[in-house]
Design goal:
12-stranded mixed sheet, 13 helices, disordered N terminus
């Protein structure tokens, strides 16, 4: 076993050798409080909590830009002020995908498929928080949280409505309609803009990055930040291509192919262009990737999907690396090597930035303890907030932070 561990470590070093690495160690004015909730979209609750009221985009229905169940899409907007009044962050919510009619119908009865099921308020923390203490670089920007209700990472566009379940597959139309609405609400004057998202929203950020730039003024500085959206085309522990088949079903069901870059779909199967490793080489807009090498969603769904674990032997391990057996750790570490190998295969780009941790986690830039706090993961002594800001504002020449810790660790993020 010692020999296996040594080999894994050496292989990992090989794949990240050209890139530096290090170990992970582990406002609004008070006058807003006087606003009436009906007139003010921001609701403060306690010293640390920020909630923002929902905006239902009723006008989007005229464009057929609707959720799975046919209801209009929605977002939450907290206005910027001061030096940030012409700067925008648009965050795309995540929440997986649906790849069959029964799956999408079930989703349409919940908050990930219908605005009727959504909470009226949404929390703004991490990259969306409005205080310099928690979000020092972007706290006074216009901050938008786009709700996810299409199940295709905002790529679908099928004109025909499913006749039996009355389902709509219109994710790309939703993205366009919301961008156009934000344009009319001030984004047309933007000087700075960031599209970001987590998980399926992180993938949506990658897939829609260039599209987002097309909705901004030509002289604006536009970049994208994808958190936990770098899903690799990995094999299961038994050697099957489970995630590849799932993505094929998603792309076919939602009609996503037409909204993926033709430069990619012209040279490979459109569903393969759903994988960041295949689409990133064609993205022109600067992109920053935040991910764990030991991403827990990928461990639990790409490496060991539920059908491979009928006895639930991976349940505890999937939640916390400290609960894994030695054998399970070896499998997890091997996945990390494969992740880095895939990542290393991306073409070099001077406009791209990376922050890859060894945290056993999945997507946390809406969490203060991950984004910017005394306990945040640090690479080259920088938090994710600091690394992203330096990259966005081009304050330093080095923007690739990769942790070479041979075993996944629980970073105790809350």
């Amino acid at each position: 076993m010692e020999h296996v561990l040594k080999t894994l470590i050496e292989e990992t070093r090989r794949y990240v050798a050209p890139i530096e690495f290090c170990l992970t160690k582990t406002t609004h004015l008070l006058a807003l409080l006087a606003c009436l909730q009906v007139l003010c979209p921001t609701v403060l609750s306690g010293a640390d909590e920020l909630y923002v009221n929902i905006t239902i985009l009723e006008s989007a229905t005229a464009q057929g830009a609707v959720c799975l169940d046919g209801n209009p899409p929605a977002y939450h907007l907290d206005r910027g002020h001061g030096s940030g009044v012409r700067s925008w962050i648009v965050y795309l919510d995540g929440g997986g995908w649906c790849n069959s009619i029964p799956d999408c119908f079930d989703r349409s009865t919940k908050d990930l498929g219908s605005t009727k099921r959504m909470e009226q308020r949404s929390s703004f923390n991490g990259i969306l928080h409005n205080t310099s203490e928690k979000n020092p670089e972007f706290y006074n920007w216009n901050r938008v949280r786009v709700k996810y209700c299409d199940g295709s990472s905002f790529t679908g566009d099928v004109e025909q409505v499913d006749p039996d379940k009355k389902l709509f597959f219109r994710g790309a139309r939703i993205f366009k309609a919301i961008m156009e609405d934000l344009w009319s609400k001030g984004m047309k004057n933007a000087k700075n803009a960031i599209l970001c998202g987590t998980s399926a929203g992180g993938l949506a950020t990658i897939l829609n990055c260039d599209e987002f730039k097309s909705h901004l003024p030509n002289d604006a500085t536009v970049k994208c930040v994808a958190d936990a959206g770098f899903f690799i085309n990995g094999k299961t522990a038994s050697g099957a291509s489970y995630i590849e088949e799932m993505y094929r079903r998603i792309v076919n069901l939602h009609g996503s192919a037409k909204n993926l870059p033709s430069a990619c779909t012209s040279v490979m199967e459109p569903s393969l262009c759903f994988f960041p490793e295949n689409i990133i080489p064609y993205i022109q807009t600067p992109l920053f990737i935040i991910n764990s090498v030991y991403d827990t969603w990928q461990i639990n769904n790409i490496l060991v999907p539920s059908y491979l674990d009928p006895q639930h032997a991976w349940n505890d391990c999937g939640k916390n690396i400290n609960n894994c057996t030695f054998g399970q750790r070896i499998i997890v570490q091997a996945f990390g090597v494969e992740f880095l190998k895939t990542f290393k295969g991306l073409p070099l780009s001077f406009t791209r930035g990376y922050f890859l941790t060894s945290c056993y986690s999945h997507g946390r830039i809406l969490t203060a303890s991950y984004w910017f706090s005394s306990s945040s993961p640090r690479l080259l002594h920088k938090t994710i907030n600091e690394a992203v800001a330096d990259w966005y504002f081009e304050r330093a020449g080095f923007h690739q932070y990769i942790d070479l810790y041979p075993c996944a660790r629980d970073c105790m993020l809350s």
